[in-house]
Design a protein that fits this description.
About 20% of the residues lie in helices and about 25% in strands. The protein starts with a strand and ends in a 12-residue tail after the last strand.
Length: about 650
């Protein structure tokens, strides 16, 4: 009997071995074709107009416009794109004497320090930076000014704003960037609102921005350390989402508990920590007493904030925010130049948090620490300080995640999951790998211990409803970025990198979610399937012949819902890139013709291979049977597989990486 060697893009990522993600992001960080950003319907998240979720992963490039030239800007933005950052927070009138010290191209932003007299040469450079960021799928979280220009409590200043010129300046910026899709306005700039005049200036600038851009972009407010925008502005209609500056402490109980407090406020608004502790920053501004932070200090707030209900997170590095370089006056002991700091461990690890959040149902995520059973000694579990356990879950009961900051036993409730069985994973936030740890009945409570007992190494415990058959945490296949490219003429079915083992695979066949934006599916019935297979590592040059793609719209048991594309094709031979186009009309059903249901979406995308005798074998069966040769003779150890479906008669808009 023939056995199918089905190397499912989902199965390979989903089950009993350790799964890893590439450390770099492929292509633009986000797809800007989804429309404007807006607040989600449940008021908890940010989303594009077409319903695609937007994960705010920010970096504090405060001095970007002021201190970097075009070549340096390209280097910085490309580095952040490759690390999956979606927002760069940058200041037009910068903190470090941004009014009187010219930018890297020799221009000051204003004539006579007058907000009504902008210097076109300076703003032409700002224009260039914004467009360069858009090319890379990155938003600019644009601060019109740093706070010392409206409240010189400290800093270079000078204080130049009044309510009148603040409104005019806001209108100027709003009108200039009205049609740039990758802008988020951020007022404030690390200064407190202490007087009625300060509030009037902020409100006037917000009104000016709205008048100028016609409401095209979201607006928030970056507060001073330890505070949030909600403190003075929560009920302002122009404030679309709250920002916190939880600040430069590594302790949950000192600062980060406040994210959840903002989450609970009414009216409901999204919240984000726009300035937690920076990497390599003097801890609590006291390096002599506390030293400098490291990657783990910036990693913990990422998950504390996200699991407390935040709609994203901002990272920062102490050298990068000030773009410190030899010859510049250092601010508070930076440890290295900005260009060396770009690749610090903490910066490289932020992408794993994004991928984790995007690998499970997105808009139904809620904070819920009641999942964690309190220990008799509560300072142990849920803990305190830098060793605080926090939890989040799906309100629909399909998954939960517990952030485990230290190798200590802890107990969780299992009844928050609706299914009868729970699949448990350990997700490593340092390298993005997920390892399945077992399946358990959904009853009572269960005690877990992370893979590094007694060490201050953090892990995330992910608990899934086994019936959902989710792939591995952090997998791009389930994640929204695998399906976030949809238009009326084409849809991305799969785009992922797969690492193969040399032997078979174990696990059940997974079923993925229906595309959230799947509309008019009949348009694709007579379309074309476009496949790109990039072979990155192959131990020999054995020609692999088989089926380019086996598509399923039901479960793997419902064989009538299968379509096979490119039967008998040479799939790949050696290292290289292979492109194929197969009309849907030429696809062959596995059993009953005409039963494939596009309106049920696609539940699986697979490659199928045959041996020299034409025999096939199942990917999750270790018994090779009569299959001729070893599995690794026919398949590479590493590939990137992409599949797009286009409407009949429409040209394929190929991605840049195609």
């Amino acid at each position: 009997m023939k056995r199918f060697f089905l190397l499912s893009l989902l199965t390979l990522l989903a089950y009993t071995f350790a799964h890893s993600q590439e450390s770099s992001w492929t292509g633009p960080s986000v797809n800007l074709s989804h429309g404007r950003l807006k607040v989600s319907d449940n008021k908890r998240f940010l989303t594009f107009e077409d319903g695609t979720p937007f994960f705010y992963l920010g970096d504090t490039g405060w001095e970007l416009f002021h201190r970097l030239n075009k070549e340096e800007t390209e280097r910085y933005l490309e580095n952040r794109r490759a690390k999956g950052f979606t927002v760069i927070q940058a200041v037009v009138l910068a903190e470090l004497d941004g009014l009187n010290t010219p930018n890297a191209e020799g221009n000051k932003p204003l004539f006579d320090n007058d907000p009504l007299k902008p210097n076109e040469a300076y703003f032409a450079h700002v224009d260039w930076v914004i467009k360069k960021a858009a090319e890379k799928g990155i938003f600019i979280g644009m601060l019109p000014t740093w706070g010392d220009k409206w409240n010189r409590k400290w800093g270079a200043g000078p204080q130049i704003f009044t309510p009148e010129n603040a409104r005019a300046y806001g209108r100027f910026l709003g009108k200039r960037y009205r049609n740039d899709p990758n802008i988020i306005w951020i007022l404030g700039g690390d200064r407190p609102i202490e007087k009625e005049l300060h509030l009037q200036i902020i409100e006037a600038m917000a009104e000016g921005l709205r008048e100028g851009d016609g409401g095209a972009h979201l607006i928030s407010f970056h507060p001073t350390g330890g505070e949030g925008s909600s403190q003075n502005l929560h009920n302002e209609k122009w404030l679309d989402f709250n920002m916190r500056q939880n600040g430069h402490s590594p302790s949950f109980t000192e600062r980060y508990f406040q994210t959840y407090e903002d989450y609970l406020l009414k009216p409901v608004k999204p919240v984000i920590d726009a300035e937690p502790i920076y990497e390599d920053h003097p801890i609590n501004f006291n390096p002599d007493a506390n030293g400098h932070s490291v990657a783990s200090d910036v990693r913990r707030p990422l998950y504390w904030d996200l699991f407390s209900g935040a709609c994203g997170h901002t990272y920062g590095h102490h050298s990068v925010w000030q773009m410190f370089a030899p010859g510049r006056s250092p601010v508070n002991r930076p440890l290295m130049p900005w260009f060396d700091a770009l690749d610090q461990q903490g910066a490289a690890q932020m992408i794993f948090g994004r991928r984790l959040m995007e690998s499970r149902p997105y808009f139904t995520r809620i904070p819920d620490n009641s999942i964690i059973v309190q220990d008799n000694v509560v300072s142990s579990v849920p803990g305190a300080g830098s060793y605080m356990f926090v939890a989040t879950r799906d309100s629909e009961g399909s998954y939960a995640m517990i952030y485990v900051p230290v190798g200590r036993k802890f107990t969780v409730r299992m009844d928050f999951i609706k299914g009868k069985e729970i699949t448990a994973w350990w997700f490593n936030p340092r390298n993005g790998k997920a390892t399945a740890t077992g399946k358990f009945p959904n009853t009572g409570t269960r005690t877990f211990l992370s893979p590094d007992p007694g060490e201050s190494l953090d892990w995330i415990l992910v608990l899934d409803d086994s019936e959902k058959k989710f792939p591995a945490p952090g997998s791009s296949v389930w994640g929204i970025h695998a399906f976030n490219s949809f238009s009326s003429k084409q849809v991305l079915l799969a785009d992922t990198v797969i690492l193969y083992e040399k032997d078979g695979y174990a696990g059940d066949f997974p079923v993925i979610q229906k595309f959230s934006n799947w509309q008019n599916p009949d348009n694709f019935q007579d379309g074309v399937l476009h496949i790109r297979i990039e072979v990155r590592d192959k131990p020999n040059n054995t020609t692999t012949t088989g089926i380019l793609c086996r598509m399923l719209s039901g479960t793997h048991k419902d064989r009538s819902q299968n379509l096979r594309f490119g039967i008998g094709k040479v799939v790949f031979k050696s290292i290289g890139t292979y492109h194929y186009e197969v009309p849907v009309s030429e696809a062959e059903p596995l059993t009953t013709p005409g039963n494939f249901r596009f309106d049920k979406a696609i539940s699986g995308i697979q490659i199928v291979a045959t041996d020299v005798k034409g025999q096939m074998i199942s990917a999750w069966e270790h018994d090779l049977g009569t299959f001729d040769g070893k599995i690794q003779d026919y398949f590479p150890l590493k590939i990137r597989y992409s599949a797009w479906l286009t409407v009949k008669g429409k040209d394929f808009d190929k991605p840049k990486a195609w």
